[in-house]
């Protein structure tokens, strides 16, 4: 087995299949069709990539753990999606995965393309807010989507992505995550994730849409100190243990794919009840900033298209299609 690009994955597969037991150098060399020296060189390359491999002069080699990176070889082993997350562009560091994904989309990147960075240094949130992520502790990624939907449906895609994220956090970690309309995920009023959707469209169709998602996964409380509009938290803080970012990403991509397909096949109305069930703003007193305009009142529900219905303090009814909720209180809490 000496074809370029095949030896290292095959060697890694053998080490993984041993489940922490030693494999001798001669046995690995025989199975791979290599010399023992060539096996040792491939071991060194795996070690340089972040795999923890123990070498014993008599017993051979055993795999102790993988890198704290979401490498394509690691994600591909557990990814169950048909199209989402394929292909996958993995970056150690970038300013903004959304900017990278937009550039790829303009060059013709396929529907479902995933761009992920281990570290993001100048990420963007809504209203040009910054979202920076330390290396190896968050999930910061962007998806290129080419949905068969009109441009007016773009805000619904953001809401559906938020719903998928809430479902995934609740299902896998039993954490009561909720949606702060339209694009934030809160856990006990603290922000754990955010979504930024950017689009290029023509009059009647979306050319492409880039969905950027940032999730606080393994940050500590010290990591999240700072002046934020909303106090921040992470899944590790709320669950009490570090999470496997690669496994969480694979599960989230599968959940997102299912939700996107439901949206295209059955429309937004089929997801509206769940969006309201997991809404953090439903029934709350809010202050919404819309440009220079401020609206204060109680959130009564959502329209069939995903806009907020607000009963203002003056007694009028307002429909909010886009805005920033700057204050949120639940009188009963």
Please provide a brief summary of the model.
The chain has 333 residues and is α+β, with helices and mostly antiparallel strands. The chain contains nine helices and 15 strands.
Summary tags:
333 residues, alpha+beta, Arc Repressor Mutant, subunit A, BirA Bifunctional Protein, domain 2, SH3 type barrels, 8-stranded mixed β-sheet, 5-stranded antiparallel β-sheet, 15 strands, 31% strand
Write the layout of secondary structure elements.
Elements: H1 7-17, H2 25-32, H3 36-48, E1 52-56, E2 60-65, H4 72-78, E3 88-94, H5 97-106, E4 114-124, E5 130-133, E6 138-145, H6 154-173, E7 178-180, E8 184-187, E9 190-201, E10 206-216, H7 235-239, H8 245-266, H9 269-277, E11 285-290, E12 293-302, E13 308-312, E14 317-320, E15 324-329
Parallel strand pairs: 3-4
Antiparallel strand pairs: 1-2, 4-5, 4-6, 6-10, 7-8, 8-9, 9-10, 11-12, 11-15, 12-13, 13-14
Helix pairs in contact: 1-3, 2-3, 6-8
Write up this protein.
The protein has 333 residues and is an alpha+beta fold. It has three domains: 7-65, Winged helix-like DNA-binding domain superfamily/Winged helix DNA-binding domain (Arc Repressor Mutant, subunit A, Orthogonal Bundle); 72-277, Bira Bifunctional Protein, Domain 2 (BirA Bifunctional Protein, domain 2, 2-Layer Sandwich), CATH 3.30.930.10; 285-329, Roll (SH3 type barrels), CATH 2.30.30.100. Helices cover 32% and strands 31% of the residues. The chain is built from nine helices and 15 strands. Strands 3, 4, 5, 6, 7, 8, 9 and 10 form an eight-stranded mixed sheet that branches. Strands 14-13-12-11-15 form a five-stranded antiparallel sheet, with no helix packed on it. The mean pLDDT is 91.
């Amino acid at each position: 087995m000496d074809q370029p690009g095949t030896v290292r994955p095959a060697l890694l597969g053998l080490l993984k299949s041993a489940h922490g037991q030693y494999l001798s150098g001669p046995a690995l060399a025989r199975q791979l069709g290599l010399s023992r020296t060539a096996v040792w060189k491939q071991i060194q390359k795996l070690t340089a990539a972040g795999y923890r491999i123990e070498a014993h002069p008599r017993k051979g080699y055993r795999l102790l753990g993988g890198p704290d990176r979401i490498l394509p070889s690691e994600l591909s082993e557990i990814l169950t999606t048909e199209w989402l997350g394929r292909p996958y562009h993995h970056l150690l560091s970038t300013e903004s995965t959304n900017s990278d994904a937009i550039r790829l989309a303009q060059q013709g990147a396929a529907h479902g393309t995933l761009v992920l960075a281990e570290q993001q240094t100048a990420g963007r949130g809504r209203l040009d807010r910054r979202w920076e992520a330390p290396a190896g502790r968050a999930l910061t990624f962007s998806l290129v989507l080419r949905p068969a939907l009109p441009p007016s449906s773009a805000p619904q895609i953001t809401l559906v992505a938020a719903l998928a994220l809430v479902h995934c956090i609740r299902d896998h970690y039993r954490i009561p995550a909720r949606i702060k309309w339209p694009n934030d995920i809160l856990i006990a009023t603290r922000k754990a994730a955010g979504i930024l959707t950017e689009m290029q469209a023509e009059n009647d169709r979306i050319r492409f849409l880039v969905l950027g998602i940032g999730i606080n996964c393994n940050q500590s409380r010290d990591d999240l100190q700072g002046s934020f509009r909303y106090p921040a938290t992470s899944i590790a803080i709320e669950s009490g243990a570090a999470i496997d970012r690669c496994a969480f990403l694979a599960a989230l991509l599968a959940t997102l794919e299912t939700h996107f397909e439901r949206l295209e096949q059955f429309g937004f109305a089929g997801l509206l009840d769940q969006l309201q069930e997991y809404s953090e703003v439903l029934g709350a007193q809010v202050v919404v900033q819309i440009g220079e305009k401020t609206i204060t009142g109680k959130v009564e529900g959502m329209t069939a298209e995903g806009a907020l219905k607000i009963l203002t303090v003056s007694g009028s009814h307002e429909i909010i299609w886009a805005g920033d909720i700057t204050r949120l209180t639940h009188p009963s809490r």
